[in-house]
Amino acid sequence: MSAWYTLSPFVIFEDIAQAIPWHSEHVVIAIFLILWLISLLSPRITNQLHDEIKQQAKEHKQAIKSLQKEHQEENCQIQQLMHSEQFAFWEWNIKTNEVQFSPQWKKMIGLADYDALNNLRDLQQRVHPKDEQAVQHEILKVLSGKQKLFECTHRVQHEDGHYIWVHDKGQVFEGADGHIEKLFAIRLDVSEQKWIESELEIDSILIEHASEGIAVAREDMKILHCNKALSQTLKKTKEQLENSDLIDLVNSLQNKPDDSIVKALETQGFWRGELSLFDDKNEILLASRVSIKKIFHDTTQTINYSFIHSDITDLKRTQTALDTLANVDSVTGLANRHKLYNILETALKSEHEVTLMFLDLDNFKNVNDSLGHDIGDLLLKAVGKEIRKLIPSKALLARVGGDEFVFYYEQGLSSLTSTEIAQRITDRLKQPFHIKGHEIRIGSSIGIAHYPQQSFDRQSLLKASDMAMYHAKRAGKGQFCEFSDHLDEDDNETT
Q1: Residue 53 is assigned to a structural domain of this protein
Q2: Can you give the CATH number for the domain in which 225 is found?
Q3: 495 pLDDT exceeds 70?
Q4: Which residues form a coiled coil (predicted)?
Q5: Do residues 8 and 66 share a domain?
Q6: 343 and 417 housed in the same domain
Q7: CA distance 373 to 361
């Protein structure tokens, strides 16, 4: 541009006009010079302009090709979308009341492409009776100009008679006069989504009315939701539970926190077990069967925890009562023969040295005969309490029948010898018992046996202590006797 300006004949002419006095012959010469300069510069200017136009044309051509390619790609994507089995469209010409349906629209309801379907009535007749009002209401909104967008989820009838769920979404188009001419809408088959929603709704109802307590927690263990059963069982409102922590909830179901539960969730992703909460008297307040599971959602890439709680308090109390009947003597509250045998069997497997004493009350039959069984039962209970005071704290004391008591202990648990313990019991049981105004005097005969020195199993240990007790009784009652091999020999000679 600067070169053209510098060589411009008009600039040169202006310079000449200022320098030369003007006469007619001068004017002719000046014009001749200007024309000569123009003839020299014109081809150069023309070539520059031609090159610029050619470059612009090339750039425009490339831009058009790029736009065409983008249009083709978009058109291809639209065509693929339009041919999807889950995607269709329909168009309603409001002026002519004609409706056009895409092949996929017909396919959704089981029609072939050639089947006639071209008016609004065909569209309306397939709408489920319970959805007709809602669909009409949405259409009236756009026809009245209240809104330009049309959106509605409803059911339409398939050719075989069943209904599918569809979601229509579209908008109105106005003519040059400003009046609505067409309503165009795309349609999606959302039957599967609706089925899933229905299943979730049913699941939600089942969870809410389940007898088990159920809760769902986030990854950070904060409880999101719980059902009515959990709220009632734990005697807390849903608001209280849904603002609490899952681990705190688990810990509230037991007297002492159990870290193994958290470790199991971290390493294995689940934990299942029983938890018990006891009062100060060691009676069950609440017994629970709990199942916790970590749940990973592939879709959302999130983690939740499910918590299922069953109240088994009544079951545990029943089991405790049955266990009491099976293992506890109803008169004294001590262990019975069944419990003694089971626990003694386990104790002997430990291979520790064990001392067992077999005790029989002297003159007890006279008490029952003279004062009655009620007094006799109270006496047995009182005897059990007194023996309990005199034996090692971890010894198991049992009433094995009638007026017979048995207890055993590991020898290392007492600083006293077995004979010292037997002597203390003998001395105490010689003292009178006062039962309901009666002074009752009895005594005891005690047999002592040791494991493994004098026996090799539970049966031989009991037999040895029983044999020693009978020797004590034959020696004059109020005695105790420790088993030895000669006792066995004496019995054989007597036999």
Answers
A1: yes
A2: 3.30.450.20
A3: no
A4: 50-84
A5: yes
A6: yes
A7: 15
Domain assignment present for 17: yes
Token pair for 417: 């010898």
**C-alpha span between 396 and 341 (Å, rounded):** 11
DSSP character string of 348-407: HHTT--EEEEEEEEESHHHHHHHH-HHHHHHHHHHHHHHHHHHS-TT-EEEEEETTEEEE
**pLDDT of 178-210, one tens digit each?**
888 888 888 888 888 888 777 767 767 777 778
- Gap between the Cα atoms of 435 and 373, Å rounded: 12
Query: Final residue of a domain: which of 172, 195, 218?
Result: 195
Contact present, 30 and 20 (Cβ < 8 Å):
yes
Residues 340 and 482 in one domain: yes
Indicate whether 338 and 470 sit together in one domain. yes
- Contact in structure between 448 and 422 (CB atoms under 8 Å): yes
For 483, the token pair is 């088993």
Q: Cα(444)–Cα(479) distance, rounded to whole angstroms? A: 7
Q: Given 317, 344, 365, which residue is the final one in a domain?
A: 317
- Same-domain pairing of 454 and 343: yes
SS3 sequence of 138-173: HHHHHHCCCCCEEEEEEEEECCCCCEEEEEEEEEEE
State how beta strands 354-362 and 443-451 pair.
Answer: antiparallel
* Residue 167 domain flag: yes
Are 277 and 254 in contact by the 8 Å Cβ rule? The answer is yes
**Torsion angle (degrees, nearest 10) of CA 25, 26, 32, 38:** -160
CA atoms of 396 and 336, how far apart (whole Å):
10
Q: Give the C-alpha separation, 255 to 308, whole Å.
A: 20
Distances (CA, A) of 371 to 278, 375, 433, 442, 444: 41, 6, 13, 14, 19
Which structural domain, as residue segments, surrounds residue 272?
209-317
pLDDT at 405: 97
Same-domain pairing of 334 and 311: no
Alpha helices in 190-304 (DSSP H): 191-208, 228-234, 238-241, 246-251, 259-267
From first CA to last CA, the distance across the chain in angstroms is 146
Looking at the structure, tell me whether residues 297 and 376 fall in a common domain. no
Confidence of residue 494 (pLDDT cuts 50, 70, 90): very low
Q: Specify if 200 maps to a domain.
A: no
For the stretch 18-28, what's the b/e string if a residue is b when 16 or more beta carbons lie within 10 angstroms of its beta carbon?
Answer: eeeeeeeeeee
Q: How far apart are CA 376 and CA 365, in angstroms?
A: 9
Query: How many domains does the chain contain in total?
Result: 4
* H or E element, residue 288: strand 284-297
* CB hemisphere CA count around 302 (13 angstroms): 9
Q: Quick one: pLDDT at residue 177?
A: 82
Residue 71 has pLDDT above 60, yes or no: yes
pLDDT per residue as tens digits for the range 309-318: 999 999 999 8
Which secondary structure element, helix H or strand E, spans residue 451, and what is its range? strand 443-451
Q: How sure is the predictor about 324, in pLDDT bands with cuts at 50, 70 and 90?
A: confident
